[in-house]
Design a protein that fits this description.
single chain; mainly alpha; 54% helix
Length: 93
């Protein structure tokens, strides 16, 4: 499958439809997030949608508030640890 903008638009439309068919929603997620799942599944919208829904379920269980509260990581905060996140070889965050 080629990587033209029109292909990405079509694939994004398909993944959003597939996510809805699986009983979830991609409404609160931008195109870059969905593109990551498409790339991870070789631009197959159905497989990417399935992976996306599984990720949403995992995230809801693992990080129910949407963030990690300070009270859960007091030692790391007291140590003033810094975790740097850089770019991949391809320049992605």
């Amino acid at each position: 499958m080629e990587n033209s903008p029109s292909t990405h638009v079509f694939s994004l439309t398909q993944i959003r439809k597939s996510v809805e068919k699986l009983g979830s929603s991609a409404e609160n997620y931008g195109d870059p997030t969905l593109i990551r799942f498409l790339v991870a599944r070789s631009n197959d919208p159905d497989k990417a949608a399935k992976m996306f829904v599984q990720w949403q379920k995992w995230k809801a269980e693992f990080v129910p508030l949407g963030f990690v509260p300070d009270s859960e990581v007091p030692d790391e905060l007291q140590a003033k640890k810094i975790f740097l996140q850089g770019l991949s070889k391809d320049g992605h965050p």
